[in-house]
Amino acid sequence: MRFHHLAAAAIAATLLTSCTQPVAPAATPTLAETAASTQTSTTTPSATQSAAATLSLGDITDLAGGAITVQAQKFKKVTGSSRETPSWAAYIKLCNVSATDPVGPSWDPWSLVTADGQQYKASTETYTGDPTPAYPFTVGDRVLNQGDCAKGWVVFEARKGATFATLEYDNSAGDHLEWRL
């Protein structure tokens, strides 16, 4: 398992006040797993690793000089949801390791990208039957103080037959992360 260090502006400053979306009660869906890795071990980053490195599912990376860690653990096709469009989900874990300001996770920075570069942003709504637990949907849904973590599923809708190359994270502080699918 690799650990990647990314020099970045403090993400904690991006915490914004927002309204939460109403969430329909979720039923437990049947999920067809396409890839999974739940290992969470880390190693010391080498001097040759760069911010542009593509991570593998399960790899942990950091933001804000190590104050925040991000890990994409699993990727699955969603079945059993009330969505009419084909859907996929990524299981994400974000931790406020040592940032003094609270961190507000959300679905907004996440997207799936196909091999030909077509991008699918995270869904703007939650549906009955989406995978649970859900990752915090909007910034105001959950505040992470030092030592707190958020984890759960982020859902994406895409065209039928789409084949994904990467899961990407682009926040307002200018951080760009990608995991190979």
Description:
This protein has strands at residues 3-5, 31-36, 54-56, 60-63, 68-78, 87-96, 110-114, 119-121, 149-157, 164-170, 176-180. With 181 residues, the protein is mostly beta strands. Strands 1, 2, 4, 5, 6 and 9 form a six-stranded mixed beta sheet that branches. Strands 3-11-10-7-8 form a five-stranded mixed beta sheet, with no helix packed on it. It is globular, with a radius of gyration of 16 Å. Residues 1-50 have low confidence and may be disordered.
Distance between the termini: 16 Å
The helix count comes to 0
Radius of gyration: 16 Å
Shape: globular
Provide mean pLDDT, rounded: 77
Helix content: under 10%
Multimeric organization: single chain
Beta fraction of the residues?
35-45%
Give unreliable regions as ranges. Answer: 1-50
How many strands appear in the DSSP assignment?
A: 11
Order of helices and strands: EEEEEEEEEEE
The secondary-structure class comes to mainly beta
Q: What summary fits the major beta sheet? A: 6 strands, mixed
Properties at a glance:
mainly beta, 6-stranded mixed beta sheet, 181 residues
Strands, helices and their partners?
Layout: E1 3-5, E2 31-36, E3 54-56, E4 60-63, E5 68-78, E6 87-96, E7 110-114, E8 119-121, E9 149-157, E10 164-170, E11 176-180
Parallel strand pairs: 1-4, 3-11
Antiparallel strand pairs: 2-5, 4-5, 5-6, 6-9, 7-8, 7-10, 10-11
